[in-house]
Design goal:
By secondary structure, this protein is of the alpha/beta class. It has helices at 11-22, 36-54, 71-75, 89-102, 118-121, 156-168, 185-201, 207-225, 228-234, 239-247, 266-280, 285-305, 310-334, 361-378, 383-387, 461-474, and strands spanning 3-7, 26-30, 65-67, 80-83, 108-111, 131-135, 145-150, 172-175, 341-347, 390-401, 410-421, 424-433, 438-450. It folds into 3 domains: 3-175, NAD(P)-binding Rossmann-like Domain (Rossmann fold), CATH 3.40.50; 185-282, Orthogonal Bundle (N-(1-d-carboxylethyl)-l-norvaline Dehydrogenase, domain 2), CATH 1.10.1040; 336-474, Hotdog Thioesterase (Thiol Ester Dehydrase, Chain A, Roll), CATH 3.10.129. It starts with a strand and ends in a 17-residue tail after the last helix. The structure holds nicotinamide-adenine-dinucleotide.
Length: 491
C-alpha cells in the first residue's frame, strides 16, 4: 500500500499519520478542525523524536502528507482508508457513505473505534466486505499492538491483507475472531479503570499511590509477560493448575466492584482531576508525552536485547528495514559505480549530539560503519551471506574530523574502494553535509573471515567478483586526499 487516507487527525488519527509517514507511506488527511494542522504537527514531531531513538536501521524516506479539504479528495487513489473520527456510530457511518462514493472498490476501510462492533459500522455500506476494525493504542506510532476485528460482512481476505500491512509497519496485529463491544483490550482496561475510580472515591488510595502500585509492580510484569504467563510462574513449579487451585476460591469473594459503577458527578471529577493535577500538574502534556515515548522506546529496546515480547516485533521490523536497505543498496549498485558510491544518508537525531548540539565523536564511527555495511550489502555480503558463515571484519580504522554538524542536519557518505582483492577490502569513506561541506573521512581495512573458524579466508566467488569489479573501476579515480595518513601528521 503506497497511499493511505486518514479521516480524522485527532489523538489517534495523528498517531496513525505519524506511523505511516515514518514508514515511507504517503498520507492524504482530512480533518475539519481549525487547529488540526498544529496539533497533528506536534504528534509528528514527537514521532520523529521517538523513531530516531527506536532504531538505528536505515528507514525509508518519509512519506508525504497532503492536507485535503474534503473526504472526496482524501480517499481518491487511496489503498487504505483509516477512519479515526469521534466515537459515534452515526458520525462514522456518514463518513463511510461519503467516502464510499469516491474510494476505489478494493480500498480497505479500517476503523480505529475503541468499542463499536464492526457489523454495526458496516451495516449501511455498499461494500461491507472491505471494512474492519483496527483498534490501535496511543501513541499509535510507538505501541505495536492493533486489534483487528471483522464484522458479519467482512471477508477473510480483507483481514489478511490488512494484517500484513500492519506487520510491515512494525506492528503486532492480533485478530480478535469474535466481535464483542470494546473488543479485548478495552474490556481489561475498563475493569482496572472502574476499580481504580472506586479505590480513590472510597479514600483507600490516591491517584499517585495507585499509579505507583502499578508502575513499580505488576505494570512491569504486564509489559513483558501479560496476565497468564505471569500467573503461571506465580503457581511455582506446579504452574497454572496450582495457581488456579490457590486463588480460585477468591473468585467468590467480594474483591472487586466491577458491575457496581461509582456515580459520575462533579464531586468524583473534582476528586480525580484534583489529585491528578497535584500528582503531575508540574509537567506539561508535551513533556509527559516525551517522557512516555522515551520510556516506551527504552522498554522495547530492552525487550529486544532479551529477544522477548514487544522486543521481537521491533527486531522483526528492523530486519525488514535492513532487508529493504539492502534492496535499495543493490538498486544503487546497478547505477554508476565508476565514481565514489553514495552509501548512506540520514538526519542527525537528537541523541547523537553532545552538550554543544554537535554530533559526537562516536557517531562519526557509526556513520562510517553504516557506510561499510551498506557497501558490503551492495557486493552481496548481506544477511543471507553472513548467515552462511562468512563476512568482513574491520581490522583498522583512521578517522579525520574536519567539520562540525548539528542535530537535524542531513549528512551522507560516499565510498571509494582503494583495494578489493584476495581477503582484503580497503575502503575510503567521505562524510558530507547536505550543503556540500566535507565533515570527515574514514579509511578502513577489512578482512574477509569465516565466522566458524574466526580466521581470514577468501570471499565466495560472487562477492569477490562484485568487489573486484568496483575496485577495478575505482582504480581509475585519483587517490583521495588524506588516504594513508597516520595520526599526528601535520594538517
Ligand atoms: N484516544 C484514545 O486513546 C483512543 C484509542 C484507541 C482508539 N480510539 C478511537 O479513535 C477514534 C478517534 O478518537 P480520538 O481520541 O483520536 O478523538 P479526537 O477527538 O482526538 O479526534 C477526532 C478527530 O476527528 C475529527 N473529525 C470530526 N468529524 C470528522 C469528520 N466528519 N471527518 C473527518 N474528521 C472528523 C475531529 O476534528 C478530531 O480532530 C475514536 O473512534 C476512538 O474511540 C481512541
Amino acid at each position: 500500500m503506497k497511499t493511505v487516507a486518514c479521516l480524522g487527525g485527532g489523538v489517534i488519527g495523528a498517531g496513525w499519520v505519524a506511523r505511516l509517514l515514518e514508514n515511507g507511506i504517503d498520507v492524504q488527511l482530512y480533518d475539519p478542525a481549525g487547529n488540526a494542522k498544529t496539533s497533528v504537527q506536534a504528534v509528528l514531531d514527537n514521532a520523529e523524536h521517538a523513531y530516531a531513538k527506536l532504531t538505528m536501521a536505515q528507514r525509508p524516506v518519509k512519506g508525504t502528507l497532503r492536507w485535503c479539504e474534503q473526504i472526496q479528495e482524501a480517499v481518491s487513489g487511496a489503498d487504505l482508508i483509516i477512519e479515526s473520527v469521534p466515537e459515534r456510530l452515526e458520525v462514522k457511518q456518514a463518513v463511510y457513505a461519503e467516502a464510499e462514493r469516491y474510494a476505489a472498490v478494493d480500498a480497505i476501510f479500517a476503523s480505529s473505534t475503541s468499542g463499536i462492533m464492526p457489523s454495526d459500522l458496516q451495516a449501511q455500506m455498499k461494500h461491507p466486505e472491505r471494512l474492519i476494525v483496527a483498534h490501535p493504542f496511543n501513541p499509535v506510532y510507538l505501541l505495536p499492538v492493533v486489534e483487528v476485528v471483522g464484522g458479519k460482512g467482512t471477508v477473510p481476505a480483507t483481514i489478511e491483507k490488512a494484517q500484513a500491512f500492519y506487520r510491515d509497519m512494525g506492528m503486532k496485529p492480533v485478530h480478535v475472531r469474535k466481535e464483542i463491544e470494546a473488543f479485548v483490550a478495552d474490556r481489561l482496561l475498563e475493569a482496572i479503570w472502574r476499580e481504580s475510580l472506586w479505590l480513590i472515591k472510597d479514600g483507600i488510595t490516591t491517584t499517585e499511590e495507585l499509579d505507583d502500585i502499578v508502575r513499580y509492580g505488576f505494570g512491569l510484569r504486564y509489559a513483558q509477560m501479560g496476565v497468564f504467563e505471569t500467573y503461571r510462574i506465580a503457581g511455582g513449579e506446579a504452574g497454572m493448575r496450582h495457581f488456579l487451585a490457590q486463588f480460585g476460591p477468591c473468585l467468590t469473594w467480594p474483591w472487586t466492584k466491577l458491575m457496581d459503577v461509582p456515580e459520575y458527578n462533579d464531586e468524583l471529577v473534582d476528586l480525580i482531576a484534583g489529585q491528578s493535577d497535584a500528582q503531575s500538574g508540574h509537567y506539561s502534556i508535551r513533556e509527559l508525552e516525551r517522557i512516555r515515548d522515551d520510556n516506551l522506546v527504552a522498554i522495547q529496546q530492552a525487550l529486544k536485547a532479551n529477544e522477548w515480547g514487544a522486543g521481537l516485533v521491533l527486531a522483526d521490523y528492523e530486519k525488514k528495514l535492513f532487508d529493504k536497505g539492502a534492496s535499495q543498496d543493490s538498486t544503487q549498485a546497478t547505477n554508476d559505480t565508476s565514481q565514489p558510491i553514495q552509501t548512506s544518508r540520514r538526519r542527525i537525531p537528537p541523541d547523537w549530539t553532545d552538550y554543544n548540539n554537535h554530533m559526537n565523536e562516536a557517531r562519526y564511527l557509526q556513520c562510517f560503519g553504516d557506510a561499510t555495511d551498506s557497501f558490503m550489502r551492495m557486493i552481496g555480503c548481506n544477511a543471507a551471506y553472513i548467515d552462511k558463515g562468512k563476512s568482513f571484519f574491520t581490522v583498522e580504522t583512521h578517522i579525520r574530523h574536519l567539520d562540525e554538524v548539528r542535530v537535524n542536519e542531513t549528512i551522507y557518505t560516499t565510498t571509494q574502494v582503494l583495494k578489493g582483492e584476495g581477503k582484503k577490502m580497503h575502503l575510503f569513506h567521505h562524510l558530507y553535509h547536505d550543503d556540500g561541506r566535507l565533515l570527515a573521512t574514514g579509511e578502513h581495512m577489512l578482512l574477509h573471515v569465516s565466522l566458524e573458524t574466526r580466521s581470514a579466508c577468501l570471499p565466495e566467488a560472487e562477492v569477490a567478483a562484485a568487489l573486484a569489479d568496483i575496485a577495478r573501476q575505482h582504480k581509475e579515480l585519483s587517490l583521495p586526499e588524506g588516504a594513508g595518513r597516520s595520526v599526528g601528521q601535520t594538517l
